[in-house]
Amino acid sequence: MMKMLPIALSAAALAAAAPCITQGQSNVAKPAAKPAAKPALSKSGHLAVNGLNYYYEIHGTGEPLLLLHGGLGSIDMFRPVVLPALADGRQVIAVDLHGHGRTALGDRQIDLPTWVTTWRGS
Predict the structure, then answer these.
(1) How far is residue 78's CA from residue 86's CA, in Å, rounded to a whole number?
(2) pLDDT tens digits for range 40-67
(3) pLDDT reported for residue 50
(4) CATH number (domain holding residue 98)
(5) Given CB 3.0 to 4.6 Å as the disulfide criterion, which of 17, 34, 73, 106 pairs with 77?
(6) Quick check: 93 pLDDT over 70?
(7) Three-point CA angle 54, 58, 60, nearest 5°
(8) Has residue 59 been placed in a domain?
């Protein structure tokens, strides 16, 4: 049975995954290396979960990896470098979270005290 490994990438992790731009003696930046070949998008669409239609994309094949963006982000923030690198040798399942990217905000009220109470299970 394959287990799904969730991942949350910080800005530092994203920077480490991206190819570096090196500088020569003249302080003129050299062009970055070409990103890895774009993995084949095997599936994308919307999936209804708890009254919301979440947008998702599946790239690559192999052991699944769930890719979640941070606040104010979307799947697109992982293009063109990080997503292909992660999908090289594994299946990446990327999701636009509630109210981000191609996932609508919906009509349910967002209320922090209610969310915290629900999250704590009170």
Answers:
(1) 10
(2) 788 999 999 988 899 999 999 999 999 9
(3) 86
(4) 3.40.50.12270
(5) 73
(6) yes
(7) 165
(8) yes
Any domain includes 33 = no
Residue 82: Cβ-neighbour burial (10 angstroms; 0-12, 13-18, 19+): buried
Q: Please, are residues 58 and 41 in contact by the beta-carbon 8 Å criterion?
A: yes
Distance CA(39)–CA(23), nearest Å, equals: 29
Residue 32: inside a domain: no
What tokens does 102 get?
């191609």
Which two three-digit tokens encode residue 80? 């063109």
Which pair of structure tokens corresponds to residue 90? 């594994």
Residue 51 tokens read as 């009254």
Distance from C-alpha of 8 to C-alpha of 79, rounded to nearest angstrom: 16
The residue type of 117 is: T
Q: How many domains does the chain have?
A: 1
Phi, psi values for residue 116, rounded to 5° = -65, -40
